[in-house]
Design a protein that fits this description.
This protein is α+β, with helices and mostly antiparallel strands and 452 residues long. The protein is 65% helix and 15% strand. The longest helix is centred in the middle third of the chain and has 68 residues, at 124-191.
């Protein structure tokens, strides 16, 4: 039998699981700023950009290694079963007649250990590499900033799309409620013999169509929310609720011109150009001589027996030796390979110059387009807002006239559709404005500061 204590523990565990599940799937209210901050902390693109910066620091250490001394230890043990022999005229040493004898060269056992040091005294490629490594880190930092801007743009646009889809659903639900009231009036009139059945049927068909559109809009909202959560790096199963205040229209003071040099895209290209110039200098450095210092110290044992366990008493002799040298390598001719490589490096720089010019032109175009879109959207918002008010007035008058037999059902349905269209146009005008607002601040290089 199960004890009361066991039952209590099971109830407690079930309660904990229930609370945990409710927290996991509870709806979260998210502002645009919070959505952006979440994306910058969790989206894979942002995380990889930060890792690139860390990787650049490792590359700096790698470049510094070329200027630091390199120390290696060596050890060897050799056994020579058959020693090479050479002919020696023993008589030549004593001044007597020629006496050729074969003499073994070396010893059966040879053991050695030592330490070697190498230090670059002058290597132009190493010095240029140190400068390029620092610029590489700055390049990845700028690239991370550009990645952040792209994430902010995508999240903002996706956020606005969700809100737009929700507003259109709200419009449909309002239209459904209004049409349902009309249907109830027509049904009452029909029941009293004051309306035609075709009018009731047409109204029911219209209600069904609106209901179908609402179901389709639910699917559209779900897809828009999933896209937003994807751009945020948020689990798709998380339920979110947006804040309508983020869609408020706040007119801005528009500037006539911008300085494209402040744009992150331009800064990235300029830094990339700097790296290409370092690459060219490193290639030119192949023309320069290199100077290296080498030093070594070694300890060697020779004998007929195993040297590691025997000494002089057993015929094994140990001695040390050392050498210090200065080496100079002077390039003379390599078949014009360096010259060809320098030309290739220069072509890469020239291509980047062309990209830089085209990028600046595109940024100027984007700024002017965003500026024009903001101006047009502001005008459209005012017009559509007035149009919504007018459509509401027309619908109210048409409903009244229909009840008194002064308007047809077609007039009433057209008035209802016109109001739905006017509200959707107003929502689209706000969406166009918010997207243009993002592009405007992006083109000015102020997107991060504006939305954060």
């Amino acid at each position: 039998m199960i004890s009361n204590k066991m039952i209590k523990w099971r109830k407690l565990a079930l309660g904990i699981l229930t609370v945990t599940g409710s927290l996991l799937y509870s709806q979260q209210t998210i502002t645009l700023k919070q959505a952006i901050e979440y994306a910058l902390q969790n989206k894979s693109d942002a995380l990889k950009a930060k890792l690139d910066i860390t990787n650049a620091e490792a590359k700096i250490l790698e470049a510094k290694a070329g200027a630091l001394p390199k120390i290696n230890g060596t050890a060897n043990l050799s056994y020579n079963p058959i020693l090479q022999q050479t002919a020696i005229d023993v008589g030549a040493f004593s001044g007597g007649p020629s006496n050729i004898q074969m003499v073994a060269m070396g010893q059966k056992w040879i053991a050695g250990a030592g330490v070697q040091l190498q230090q670059a005294i002058f290597d132009q490629q190493v010095f240029i590499g140190l400068k390029a490594a620092k610029s590489t880190k700055e390049f990845y930092q700028l690239n991370a900033d550009l990645t952040d801007e792209q994430i902010i743009e995508r999240v903002s646009n996706a956020y606005f799309q969700v809100f737009t889809a929700q507003e259109k659903k709200n419009t449909l639900e309002s239209s459904f409620a209004s049409t349902e009231k009309v249907r109830n009036v027509i049904k009452s009139l029909f029941d009293n013999g004051l309306s035609k059945k075709i009018d009731l049927d047409r109204t029911n068909v219209n209600l069904t169509n609106i209901e179908t559109s609402i179901k389709q809009s639910n699917n559209g909202i779900a897809q828009a929310e999933n896209a937003l959560k994807f751009y945020m790096g948020m689990p798709i199963e998380t339920k979110i609720q947006l804040v309508p205040g983020d869609m408020e229209v706040t007119p801005h003071l528009l500037e006539d011109m911008i300085n494209t040099d402040s744009r992150t895209e331009v800064k990235v290209l300029l830094k990339n150009k700097e790296l290409l110039e370092y690459q060219k200098k490193a290639t030119i450095a192949r023309y320069y001589p290199t100077v290296n210092l080498t030093a070594n110290y070694n300890w060697q044992g020779l004998g007929a027996k195993f040297p590691l366990t025997n000494g002089k008493s057993n015929g094994v002799y140990w001695s040390d030796y050392s050498a210090i040298g200065l080496g100079i390598n002077i390039p003379i001719f390599n078949g014009f390979a360096t010259k060809a490589k320098v030309q290739q490096n220069q072509i890469e720089i020239d291509k980047l110059e062309a990209d830089l010019k085209d990028t600046k032109l595109g940024l100027d175009q984007a700024y002017q387009n965003a500026k024009s879109q903001i101006e047009n959207s502001l005008s459209s918002i005012e017009n559509q807002k007035a149009n919504v008010q007018l459509a509401e007035s027309v619908l109210a008058d048409t409903k009244s006239n229909y009840q008194y037999g002064l308007a047809t059902l077609t007039d009433l349905l057209d008035a209802e559709n016109s109001l739905v269209q006017a509200k959707n146009n107003y929502t689209n005008a706000i969406l166009d404005y918010k997207i243009a607002e993002i592009q405007y601040y992006k083109s000015k290089g102020e997107l991060k500061t504006y939305l954060k």
